[in-house]
Design a protein that fits this description.
The protein is mainly alpha-helical and about 120 residues long. Helices cover about 60% and strands about 10% of the residues. The longest helix has about 50 residues, at about 15-60. Helix 3 (about 70-75) crosses helix 4.
């Protein structure tokens, strides 16, 4: 490169450096956020898998026909909405006469018209 070309570009070097630094920083930030999100999502799914297995085991215990929602959610350490979502995910349902009690639908199917639980 000639001395004249270098002299022409010289004033723009800080601007070029700033723009390229901003682009690189932005790309690194986006990929960093994606990585963090994927990691947290994987950990959440792992936890929920364990919680679902525990809920399923509790609801299959022949000692109990129905389990209380407070016992179920307390055992797996979930808040109310998460516990309900996990229970529905494994095929459980709330009792029609008392929605605070839950059982697996395969063991306690919905009653037919006129039947009581």
């Amino acid at each position: 490169m000639s001395a004249e070309a270098t002299a022409t570009i010289q004033p723009y070097i800080p601007l070029i450096s700033a723009i390229s630094g901003g682009v690189v920083g932005g790309v690194v930030t986006v990929f960093g956020q994606i990585f963090v999100h994927k990691y947290k999502e994987r950990e959440r799914k792992k936890l929920e898998s364990v919680q679902k297995k525990m809920l399923d085991k509790m609801l299959r215990d022949p000692t109990y026909e129905w389990r209380s929602l407070s016992t179920l959610r307390g055992t797996v350490g979930a808040d109310l909405e998460t516990a309900k979502r996990l229970l529905i995910d494994i095929g459980a349902r709330g009792r029609m006469g008392n929605p605070k009690q839950w059982a697996l639908m395969e063991l306690k199917p919905l009653p037919k018209d006129g039947d009581n639980e």
